[in-house]
Amino acid sequence: MHNALAEKFGIQYPIFAFTPSEHVAAAVSRAGGLGVLGCVRFNDPEELEATLTWMDENTDGKPYGVDIVMPAKVPTEGAAVDLDKLIPAEHRAFVDRTLDELGVPPLSDDVEHATGVLGWLHSVARAQVDVALKHRPALIANALGSPPKDIIDEAHAHGVPVAALAGAVGHALSHVANGVDIVIAQGYEAGGHTGEIASMVLVPEIVDAVGDSATVLAAGGIGSGRQIAAALSLGASGVWMGSYWLTAAEYKLGSASGEGPSAIQRALLDASSSDTVRSRIYSGKPARLLKTKWTEAWSKPGAPDALPMPLQNLLVAEAHQRIVASENPEVVAMPAGQIVGRMNEIRPVADSMADLVAEFEATVARLNKLK
Amino acid sequence: MHNALAEKFGIQYPIFAFTPSEHVAAAVSRAGGLGVLGCVRFNDPEELEATLTWMDENTDGKPYGVDIVMPAKVPTEGAAVDLDKLIPAEHRAFVDRTLDELGVPPLSDDVEHATGVLGWLHSVARAQVDVALKHRPALIANALGSPPKDIIDEAHAHGVPVAALAGAVGHALSHVANGVDIVIAQGYEAGGHTGEIASMVLVPEIVDAVGDSATVLAAGGIGSGRQIAAALSLGASGVWMGSYWLTAAEYKLGSASGEGPSAIQRALLDASSSDTVRSRIYSGKPARLLKTKWTEAWSKPGAPDALPMPLQNLLVAEAHQRIVASENPEVVAMPAGQIVGRMNEIRPVADSMADLVAEFEATVARLNKLK
């Protein structure tokens, strides 16, 4: 699976793994891919600083990347406390009522209440970039548009290539015009923020549109070596996998008071590819989530429309914290792609990587017999 | 691209082309694929009889197939005139008002008014099967579920394999249990009746689920050799392409009073992959259509919900006829998949087939260098 892109990054396989877990990111880098740490959860730059120091020390000198979130359209700036005032009372009442109906208890008094994700505010994301560039990122990616020009320039000045996700050809061309080096063509089937065009159609469209002016990774629906072979057939130079790592053994995802996987992980393990939904209720922008009693409550008649970014996540932040604490797999708030149907086991990253590579090679050998 | 499936059907390439045009179907068969004639438009068995006789005479002795539509859940039976009484006045008024607003003129007095598609009534579809089996079909496919057991048995008694479309693993397993030989895994990106799981995820899921008990074709989003290589990477034994043939030079699609392509064809040529929508307004079941002023009118606030099958198509049949006659590319009612973004030229089938095969071979050669 080694190719020019892998060569350029000094990695063995062109497998880029997006994950909010530094443990998973480091394990992917150690196993020959490129672990890309999602930074949106770091409201505090010092916490990111400590985590990247940990990454430096736990990747055997192998490269890793960071993913920030800078929406192309700048959302309302402000501290959480001011933004909170913009949330309608009707929305708060709906959230409270729904949690009651779903049997989700309030937080206990000794827990600090979540304030919500602010990492997609440009002010916060810029601080994250500054922190990251003091370490040795091999890539800075942006999940919601091109980063601002000065950030692209700063990354390039540090010799760091910039990637951006695209759900349509227009986004991809705009990224290239803005100086982005790697376009991540992300299909409808992907988890998290996503568009409406499926990978099978989107990837070759973007490959043809950007030509030699950028490298293209395929994202969405990838969790096996056959799917990597399909992505490379479509013309991508590598793959960007996200949801797939949510069931990595290295990922301490969610809350588990007992032994074994957390409620979120059990929900992921049990879900089929039909058990996701594309909805604005997580962040205010369309994102694919695990379909649960929580997401279904928002699509019932009488439920309010989701608020715009960043208000929606501020609205639901404490609700999500309560949901995690309740440890009920039927009430989970979690971005996940349609590949969730193939995530049926908690597995170490190294085992998954070995399987991806072996199945890719078997697939190419099979195709080659047809020629 | 020749493989065991192609060998079994006595064709050169495992490219199955669904099309309502006998001219396109015959051209695909002559070019080494398997043309599959969509029969749903034949309300009159004698018309189908004549068309299949034409197919027999124009395929150079090469195999072809037929596609019937038998919904797994039997819709209300009845003659068009009786079913008409079940359509609410509110729906008729909405259709009339919308056509007025879109500037679609009434039919001229000398035109016979369309009665709507009845081919998805089991009574009509059974007559179509009887007609088909008097000819030499190499395949009988069903777009909306498994055919009834007696029809599968009848086909098998004639040595004809049966195919059925599946949008989820559950459908595929049900087809296999019912005796279906070929499962067509049809992704979200496909035109016409379609589910919500994208091909990248659906195809390998269905391949793994059915194992050796059925052959799997991939459908949805396929219009290039790279996409065929991707489908075969995912484990499919062949591809089922539908939308792609709508811009075949052999297809007299729509009405053109002047020279050049019809309004429908111009709309298809101009559309990007973003210009489709999944909606129930065509038949009563979710189907992907070209996004036009007609489809958008149905999604505006105040528009009625689509009626169940078969009533919805009876409701809109004359509207569709008026829309075709109006020759306005902005007001078109046409099923089409996301691959429409790659359909930018009216081309003879033989040219398209040659390109598909050449690009497939180049793709496999490219992948093989990575191994």
Automatic annotation (TrEMBL), chains A, B:
InterPro entries: Aldolase_TIM, NMO. Keywords: Dioxygenase, Flavoprotein, FMN, Oxidoreductase. PANTHER family: 2-NITROPROPANE DIOXYGENASE, MONOOXYGENASE RV1533-RELATED. The keyword Protein biosynthesis does not apply. Pfam families: NMO (PF03060). The keyword Oxidoreductase applies. GO terms for molecular function: dioxygenase activity; nitronate monooxygenase activity. The lineage of its organism: Bacteria, Bacillati, Actinomycetota, Actinomycetes, Mycobacteriales. It comes from Rhodococcus maanshanensis. This is NAD(P)H-dependent flavin oxidoreductase YrpB, nitropropane dioxygenase family. It comes from the Bacteria.
